[in-house]
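Worked example 4.2. Below are the chains of a multi-component assembly; read each line carefully before continuing.
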Amino acid sequence: MPEKFQTPRGTRDFLPEEMIKRNFIINTFKKVFENYGFSPFETPAFEDFELLAAKGSGGDEIKDQIYYFKDKSNRELGLRFDLTVPMARVVANNPQLPKPFKRYCIARAWRYEEIRKDRFREFWQCDVDSVGSSSMESDAEILAVAVDSLKALGFKKFNIKLNNRKILSALIDYVDVPKKKKYDVFRAIDKLDNFGEDTVKDELKEVGLRPKQRKELLELIKMEGSPEEMIKKAEKILQSAIGFEGLSELKQIVEISKSYGFIDRIVIDFSLARGLDYYTGPIFEVIDTSGKNIGSLAGGGRYDELIELFGGRSTPATGISLGIERIVEVMEQEKMFKLPKTKIKVFVANVNEDVKTNTIEIANQLRDEGIPCQIDLMNRNLKKQLEFADSMDIPFSLIIGPDEVKKKTVKLRDMKKREESTLKLGKVIKKLKSI
Amino acid sequence: MPEKFQTPRGTRDFLPEEMIKRNFIINTFKKVFENYGFSPFETPAFEDFELLAAKGSGGDEIKDQIYYFKDKSNRELGLRFDLTVPMARVVANNPQLPKPFKRYCIARAWRYEEIRKDRFREFWQCDVDSVGSSSMESDAEILAVAVDSLKALGFKKFNIKLNNRKILSALIDYVDVPKKKKYDVFRAIDKLDNFGEDTVKDELKEVGLRPKQRKELLELIKMEGSPEEMIKKAEKILQSAIGFEGLSELKQIVEISKSYGFIDRIVIDFSLARGLDYYTGPIFEVIDTSGKNIGSLAGGGRYDELIELFGGRSTPATGISLGIERIVEVMEQEKMFKLPKTKIKVFVANVNEDVKTNTIEIANQLRDEGIPCQIDLMNRNLKKQLEFADSMDIPFSLIIGPDEVKKKTVKLRDMKKREESTLKLGKVIKKLKSI
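Applying the procedure described above to all two chains together yields the following structure tokens:
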């Protein structure tokens, strides 16, 4: 017997049951995105390696973290590791695009990472970005989209953690850390929530911060309170221009969030830093607070310099990434999916071979009326056909036999109630359309 | 200024205008597929090279035709060149899948081919396959799905070319060509429609066929007539078991196509061979006949041996691939797309900064009522806001000023008619919902 071939290591196949969940999420999201004026947009799966390794993109070290390859003409390529970098490339090359350029992209990305539970080397990415506006209204709109998207799926308990890279820079200035260590410090303090105070202290020590600096910084990033309280506290400490700018942006977002109605979800958290270097202003993360602590459902921020770094005009931009796999995980845990196995409403069964063409004609009529239906393709007997319909959770069957054909009727069977009634096809169509 | 980065060679970026077209096609198709009981299904972008180069898959020579690479652990991988091979792998590994396993997959595939106009190295693939049934009802259903899908997009003039690999084998036996030359002969005769008789003759000569063989074969594949006539003629010539089997399958599909109502589209064509080696029974191609001769819109066939070749149980299967890019091309030529630039119905404009929060609150209310709308993010003045709305083909604007806020009214502007009326928001919502 020939050998079997496996799913490539670190990736997954999505059988219908799994794809139906993802399609439900994707379709729900698309509707929300388009309600706000975001348009679909896609780029190729791979990019020139040059772009992926560019400043502002993945940097030199990216080669070890991606699928890198050469084509037959020795061009260096790599599978994209996110959707933001390719989008920024397109915007840089197309200055004629009307602004704001509001796009969404739901597609795969790839990272050659250590394989862990629920961490794959190929993953769905769902990005919503708004390009061209430097106004905080743009960031607030992105957050509104995220809130509406999650609510549309049935999420209730979630918060928005909010911070600003400018405030982080001011904090670092305040405790007198050299600028070149900035991103190392960002990465260290970002670990507060997931790994705790000791880890952050250790990492800050490794970065070279003195005990006094570490103590002060930790006190600052551990601050808690309502958005207003947090801003007031921070204003007293951060007396620098950059600090004020960051706080002013924070205040504006908080203010606009009142009009959108999600002010109650906002939690200002000065320890939120996010890993990527390209953020320049507001940064945010959406956290599930239903109690299971499964981390963030979405994350993003403002990146006003990326498009210019890729050779474009100076173009402000902000966006968020919704974590599809994380969302699937929570929705499974919380039993939030109420999805049928199939969209088929009726199985059109035949009593014997002689009426096969009749079942096809009836199925045709049903489909013309917009009723999804299915016929037998396996030459099964009636019992087996109904068992199959049952196994697929198809709610109704129509049973067609020579008698029914003669009398121009059909037998409608409710598969759950196990009830049958003999009706004219027109009646059945009316009934099924009303359900 | 930093250098710009290009779209990778042989690939394309899809700006919103282009993606909106593709999404329209994809959504239309999905609805038809699900109406027939086909379910979504996806596999990773890359596969182990072993699979791609396996017998029945791409074969040894595939390496030069695909994007081939190694991961950090020296595993040989390649971007998939179609969606059938990965699906067959999954079915081979999952014998528990209920049959028929009816799946669709709309995703990218990649081939490292010579770049030509409208031929890219990354392309959309849209496959519908039915696995587990050896019945011709299954092939006929696949054709019905293709017909319905194209009709749903607005296609009217198209035919289904139909042939059968068994008939081709019988033809080849009839003119006495050695079995090992079979696939070379198939590839040669498949060129009749696109390249003409002389090319086929030359290629058959190259394969080593004698003049008499070439003449006889050409006469056979050039036969024309109604399906019934073609079958009758062929029955007289092909007196072998395999020939009868192929003709019987053809007859069954023709018969079932009457019930589905697409008999008038069927053209039996004994020169249709299709390139791939894995077909075993019926083969088909959907051809646009509107006169512009742009070749096939879809193509497929039965491949009963592929799953077994990949280590699975012997499992019959049949399917079709709808050519999304070709379909886009025809729809553009024929001006079949009637798509708005955006789904936004209303631009909620502000007269000045003071009423910005009011526009947000009104936009929120509209979205809650399911009306897609957009606010200004660019701090534009009213004139510029309306110009933007116009440029995006947004049909209506609401103009919000201090007066309107005081009187709790809004000004509705019909952007096409350039008419304005002052109304209560409730009235506007009612009006917009009714459009």
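Take a moment to check your reading of the output against the notes. Chain A has two domains: 16-45+80-333, 346-434. Chain A touches chain B through 100 residues (CB under 8 Å).
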